[in-house]
Amino acid sequence: MRIKDADMTDLAERRKRAINLSLNEALVDEARRYSPNLSATVEALLTEYVHRESAAQAERRQRADACTAGWNEVHARIGSLADEHTTL
């Protein structure tokens, strides 16, 4: 599911539910020294991660579309190299 930029601002305001995570105990203990609210910290980091991955996926899709358009342009101009070898 792709999250749009407008939805990202609403993400923190959405209904919350409890989930279970298995995390390194020492890491959690150390993180608690830096953040009094680990849930909020993890949610902020997860929101950033989802946004970054969504943007990366959109960029990959745009590059693939540009590549496809380029090959379609080449095919329209010169045809397929296999056209002269087809038996159909």
UniProtKB/TrEMBL annotation:
Alphabetically ordered keywords of this record: Toxin-antitoxin system
Domain of life: Bacteria
Pfam families: CcdA (PF07362)
Protein name in UniProt: Antitoxin CcdA
Higher taxonomy: Bacteria, Pseudomonadati, Pseudomonadota, Betaproteobacteria, Burkholderiales
